[in-house]
Design brief:
Layout: H1 2-12, H2 23-82, H3 86-103, H4 113-134, E1 137-139, E2 152-158, E3 167-172, E4 175-177, E5 180-183, E6 185-190
Parallel strand pairs: 2-6
Antiparallel strand pairs: 1-4, 3-6, 4-5
Helix pairs in contact: 3-4
């Protein structure tokens, strides 16, 4: 009976189907697998190359952005340093205006007390003008010149024998710090 059981067991086991694969078929299968692997690798390589290109472009953009930031920062610092004295000089202008008004009172009589004070005022005024010059502050020249709204503020007009739009009189001096108008000159303009 044992033999009979063995035969039964063999019948129950699924039979392996063996296919006769030729050498050519095997080569075709291998070539196809190799081709698939190469395509897969090429796709991955292309994906990595695209990623590298994208990262290189981003690095270039970031570098350009940093260069532009530095330029803007340097320009801003340069501008700040160039006009750092603007507030101080602007505050000094009212003092200079006061000195100019006082000096206009001088009647060239050097014996009275007022003239003695005015000579001291003139020295202080001259020192203040020297300080302004040191900081590259210049008065706006406008007498007998065409009215320019960038440098002049017209507060009066007057009919006269000059052509229209000419500055007749400067009522209050204007000043320029380097190349920036601190205060436009108040002027009387011909009609």
């Amino acid at each position: 009976m044992e033999k009979h059981d063995e035969i039964k067991e063999e019948k129950k086991k699924p039979k392996k189907e063996t296919k006769n694969i030729t050498k050519e078929d095997m080569m075709k299968i291998l070539d196809e697998k190799i081709k698939q692997l190469e395509e897969s690798e090429n796709d991955k390589l292309k994906e990595y190359e695209d990623k590298i290109k994208e990262l290189e472009e981003k690095a270039l953009r970031d570098k350009a952005e940093m260069i532009n930031y530095r330029k803007r920062k340097d320009e801003e610092i340069s501008r700040m340093l160039k006009y750092k004295d603007e507030e101080l000089v602007s505050d000094m202008l009212t003092i200079i205006d006061t000195f100019e008004s006082a000096i206009k009172m001088d009647d060239n009589n050097l014996t009275d007390e007022v003239s003695k004070f005015l000579s001291g005022f003139k020295m202080i005024y001259a020192n203040l003008l020297g300080i302004l010059e040191k900081y590259d502050v210049k008065a706006i020249d406008g007498n007998n010149k065409p009215f320019d709204p960038a440098y002049h503020q017209a507060v009066m007009t007057e009919s006269c024998d000059m052509e229209p739009g000419m500055v007749i009189e400067i009522l209050r001096k204007g000043y320029i710090l380097k190349d920036k108008v601190l205060r436009p000159a108040m002027v009387k303009v011909s009609e």
